[in-house]
């Protein structure tokens, strides 16, 4: 039996063109198939839509009412199809993203600015926090997290570029104290502490050159719970700073800071974009996943 939506389209074509033959030409059907669609509709509805004679057909009262309603329904279907196609080619709507504070402020913002320039129909709500949260419980579309994802969250975990910390200091500090030549010399220097991952008067900094690892105890003379404030203190010559390589890039370009022990870095930490699997087919979220993975490509093709 012909489907009802096609039957409605054929019926509207018959009314607009004035004949079965003309409607058949518009729809690419035979006149006999057009007649079958109309008959099937009338049988389903239990009313006569068209009064037929050997010379012409005309709308019945029920047919005229049904024609108006069909135009409304078919127009809504066309609007829905156009919107879906538009969302695929020009994704729109709101993306709610959560990110760690330092990464979000210094590394994610350049990506978001570029993303929104190219996709102006997308609105972004970005929240920054270092607390581990689940997007399922907090109304987020996606969450960026450093470290191994919790398998109990049952989320898709898209690998991003590993999070790497390197060392830096202001030219004024290096001119006054000199630069350490190896991790073993760090205890003789002023090493600044970031409180979310440092606690206590003596801290252990772990550094590697990719072949060997050094565990070095340092005693931070200054500890701050905001990395941006700590970086500003470093630019004032207060000590050696550990920071995300992308967050430090701007300070290096402005020559406010210089790399320290450039052949060494803290062990890389895995970083992932987390999102619910059932949301992965949405155009704007799928676009975010693709673009973010290209901007922050995972190591070794992971």
Structure described in brief:
With 302 residues, this protein is of the alpha/beta class. It has 3 domains: 4-86, Winged helix-like DNA-binding domain superfamily/Winged helix DNA-binding domain (Arc Repressor Mutant, subunit A), CATH 1.10.10.10; 93-161 and 269-301, Periplasmic binding protein-like II (D-Maltodextrin-Binding Protein, domain 2), CATH 3.40.190; 165-260, Periplasmic binding protein-like II (D-Maltodextrin-Binding Protein, domain 2). It is built from 10 helices and 14 strands.
Question: What can you tell me about this protein's structure?
Answer:
This protein folds into three domains: 4-86, Arc Repressor Mutant, subunit A, CATH 1.10.10; 93-161 and 269-301, Periplasmic binding protein-like II (D-Maltodextrin-Binding Protein, domain 2); 165-260, D-Maltodextrin-Binding Protein, domain 2 (3-Layer(aba) Sandwich). The protein has helices at 4-17, 20-27, 31-45, 61-89, 101-118, 135-138, 171-177, 227-235, 245-253, 283-295, and strands at 50-52, 57-59, 93-99, 122-128, 142-146, 156-163, 165-169, 193-194, 203-208, 213-218, 223-224, 241-244, 258-260, 269-275. It has 302 residues and is an alpha/beta fold. The radius of gyration is 32 Å and the shape is rod-shaped. 42% of the residues lie in helices and 23% in strands. The mean pLDDT is 87. It has a five-stranded mixed beta sheet, covered by helices on one side. A three-stranded antiparallel beta sheet has the order 12-7-13. A two-stranded antiparallel sheet has the order 1-2.
């Amino acid at each position: 039996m012909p489907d009802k939506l096609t039957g409605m389209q054929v019926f509207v074509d018959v009314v607009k063109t004035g004949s079965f033959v003309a409607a058949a030409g518009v729809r690419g059907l035979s006149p006999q198939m057009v007649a079958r669609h109309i008959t099937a509709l009338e049988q389903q509805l239990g009313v006569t839509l068209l009064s037929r004679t050997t010379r012409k057909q005309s709308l019945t009262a029920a047919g005229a009412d049904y024609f108006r309603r069909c135009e409304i329904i078919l127009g809504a279907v066309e609007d829905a199809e156009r919107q879906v196609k538009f969302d695929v080619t020009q994704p729109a709507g709101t993306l709610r993203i959560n990110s760690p504070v330092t990464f979000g402020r210094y590394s994610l913002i350049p990506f978001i600015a570029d993303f929104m320039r190219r996709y102006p129909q997308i609105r972004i709500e970005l929240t920054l926090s270092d607390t581990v949260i689940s997007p399922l419980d907090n109304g987020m579309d996606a969450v960026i997290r450093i470290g191994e994802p919790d398998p109990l969250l049952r989320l898709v975990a898209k690998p991003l570029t590993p999070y790497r910390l390197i060392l830096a200091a202001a030219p004024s500090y290096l001119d006054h104290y000199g630069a350490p030549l190896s991790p073993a010399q760090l205890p003789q220097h002023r090493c600044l502490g970031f409180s979310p991952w440092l606690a206590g008067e003596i801290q252990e900094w772990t550094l590697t050159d990719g072949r060997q690892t050094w565990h070095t105890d340092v005693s931070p003379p200054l500890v701050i719970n905001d990395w941006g404030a700590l970086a500003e203190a470093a630019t004032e010559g207060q000590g050696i700073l550990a920071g995300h390589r992308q967050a430090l890039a701007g300070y290096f370009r402005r020559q406010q800071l210089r790399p320290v022990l450039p052949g060494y870095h803290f062990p890389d930490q895995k970083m992932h974009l987390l999102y619910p699997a059932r949301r992965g087919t949405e155009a704007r979220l799928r676009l975010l996943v693709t673009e973010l993975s290209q901007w922050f490509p995972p190591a070794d093709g992971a």
